Amino acid sequence: VLAVLGLEAAAPGECELSRLLQDKLQYELRLQYMKHYFPIDYTLQVQYEEVLRPANITRLRNGTVSEAALRYLWFHVSSQAVLRIHEVLPEKHPSWKYTQELCQLFDALGKEYSEYRQTDVEVVVADLVKLVHSADAESRRKAVRPKALLDNCLKVMRMLYGAPCEWGQG
Questions:
Q1: Name one GO biological process term (predicted).
Q2: End-to-end CA distance of the chain
Q3: Residue 112 reports pLDDT greater than 90
């Protein structure tokens, strides 16, 4: 799997990993693995903070949160969403391998962010990341379709990685 994803090379950078993620999050793949292979109207219970939409990013940008902090937030929210989806799937489910590959890409991206500490980002982002990883937010949950989680992941990623990574070139 790692060779197929191109991860056997020496630590691809953040932009390369985001390109690999974009390829894995193509509409057809999200539709097939996150909608067609799930029961009709299937939802996951996630914390409100685990749903990161473009509007959230716009609001945080207007609040002068740095792009690096927004990427850090996107990484934590998106990797948690993919992990939640992966955890509900039995190993023989047709979407299991797909979500496993997404988890591996996020693990590799996590290495890029490993030097980043919560103390290095704005307080609002650090607080959101803590909420995403906290177990005591049980009362603040909402039902979300798996495809919607990955749709948001891709939309926000495109907002955050668009210009610096020059998508589609190379």
A1: positive regulation of macrophage differentiation
A2: 23
A3: no
Domain CATH for 128: 1.20.1250.80
Phi-psi region of 77 (alpha: psi -120 to 50; beta: other; left: phi over 0): alpha
Question: Does residue 50 belong to any structural domain of this protein?
Answer: yes
Dig out the tokens for 31 from the structure. Answer: 């539709």
Range of the domain at 97: 12-162
Structurally, how many domains does the chain consist of? Answer: 1
Give residue-wise pLDDT tens across range 90-111: 999 999 999 999 999 999 988 8
Q: What is the mean pLDDT of residues 3-7?
A: 39
Q: Residue 169 domain-assigned?
A: no
pTM: 0.81
How far apart are alpha carbons 152 and 131 in whole angstroms?
Answer: 18
